[in-house]
Design a protein that fits this description.
The chain is α/β, with parallel strands linked by helices. It has one domain: 3-Layer(aba) Sandwich (Rossmann fold). The protein has five helices and eight strands. It has an eight-stranded mixed β-sheet. The longest helix is centred in the N-terminal third of the chain and has 15 residues.
Amino acid sequence: MKGTDRLLQSWRIRKAQAFIQPGARVLDVGCADGALFRQLGEQISGGLGIDPSIEEPTETERFRLVPGAFPDDLPETERFDAVTMLAVLEHIPLDKQRELAAACARCLEPGGRVIVTVPSPAVDRILHLLESLRLIEGMALHEHYGFEPGQTPSLFVSSGLRLARARKFQLGLNNLFVFEKANGWPEAG
């Protein structure tokens, strides 16, 4: 990763961090090299990251990183207080997104949160320019297909989660969504 990639990644992590409770156990889908866990540090009690680009499992005192794709390569027995997917959903084929959202809901503890960032489709043009100028390494741009961020709420709400927050950041070019699993609020009938 280049410096610009790290800067953008760190910005997304800071946005997500505000919604991760102290002491939480976190699943990071699309964790790359575990930057989220390093940035969260002692704020969390532990974490598990999964990413298809990981070649060998890695374990530290506070987190594990495993190779694979979520949810197929992760046992459904673990539960988490938060699931993060930062700049991941736009890489997931449309026919797999509902399954992904449902798996997030299943692995959450009651009261847990799913925290998602999704760039605007207009960002692809900017990223391609930055890549051509060699300011970024591409962040798997070949997998982007113009996912519309406005589709995000329906994916997760249909899995039984409640939309708690939706806002734009990075000059309106990125979107943050926070979903919560029932814990004291009435279920939709």
